[in-house]
Amino acid sequence: MAEQRGLQDGDRGRIRTPSNRAPSQSSVRAREMNPDGPYSRKDYLRDAALLNILLEDGEYRYTTPWISPTTNLLVHAVIRAMYSTQKHISDAQALRELLQRRGRPFGENDIRTLAARFQNGPTAEEEEERPHLGEPRRPFSSLRNNRQEAPPAERTFRSPNALPEMRYDLDPRERETRRERRSNTVEGIGAFRQPDRKRTFKADILSLDTSKMGISAYINQLNFLTRQYGEEQILANIVPGLMSRPDSDGCQWFNSLDYRTQGRLTYDLELWKTLLEQRFRRDRGAIMIEADNLRHSFREEDQLSLQAYIDKKIRLYNEVGNIDEDATARRILMGVDPALAKLVSLGHGDCTIQHIKEQLTAREFAARRDWQISRSELQSELDAMRTQLKSLEAQQTRSENRHF
């Protein structure tokens, strides 16, 4: 009756019409970060993905001092324990939340509230994942529900319009397995699949000998193997790999560390890279001088080929670090044989290493042929000059003999 009186009085907006204004994102986030509200397992996994992005992304590096080391360890443990599907969903939810907060940086109170709630763990159970005791488990859906009991007739010559035989015995769990298998394939790149975490490799490939491999190349190898086998496999095999060669620099360095540092290295791959780089990185100035003095010549091609020169030059400049790609490409071109350098056109704008490598490789044969022709012509001129010099010396000797 009150609603009818209100409608008759013309107060329609107050009684029936809800507010069309959407709540602000800050109020939504504040309600989500409420430590007293329900906190499910999905929220727990989403916060783990969010904290992982805040710790690893350089854009949110200012939030690192507000996250305790205990929270950092717990985040990495939860991320490693996730299934691939759970990790994809949690990462998507965390990225969506970061996009909603675009332009509004995190505050110290927000980060500490988020970390405290994450450390306390889930406080609410999800009904779909954890049914109450006594409730029957929901049966799998069957393909026979909306179909006839008997399978359709087979297609024959006399009945060409009959439907093909359906797979009635297909287990729904098999369909789920196929769906999960398809979800592991990145969209748009059909040949690429997520790395199989169960694969292993020999630990001795992680041995470190700085006389044969620079520290930058070793760290690049760690990054490549991490993408292939996962961070857990690298952390489990890096110490046996260093110990496989007791006389190497890496083994002696690891044995010189204190037990606290070794304990921190058991779960932090980034700390491995930082300590290795601090210990084995050479002087940048000396590496820069070595890279600039490296030259390529067709005369000494049997000792240093063009491809070996390019690879070594790029490796040295990468080890120096903080060098623009355009500067690296131009320095590579400056160090090649002049017969080859004059055939390469830089063009306008910045140069790329790939562009310079393609041009050098394409013009190597023509430059070597020009160098061989020039060398043969120069050799012919030198031989002619030697012959002329010998004839002049013979004439001078004969003239001196006549005077005597």
Automatic annotation (TrEMBL):
Q: Does the keyword Coiled coil apply?
A: yes
Q: Basic and acidic residues bias located where?
A: 1-14, 29-40, 129-138, 166-184
**Keywords for this entry?**
Coiled coil
Where are the annotated coiled coils located? 375-402
What segment(s) does the record annotate as region Disordered?
1-40, 117-184
Q: Indicate, by first and last residue, each region the UniProt record lists as having compositional bias (Polar residues).
A: 17-28
**Is Coiled coil given among the entry's keywords?**
yes
Q: Name the domain of life this protein comes from.
A: Eukaryota
- Signal sequence range: none
Q: What is this protein called?
A: Retrotransposon gag domain-containing protein
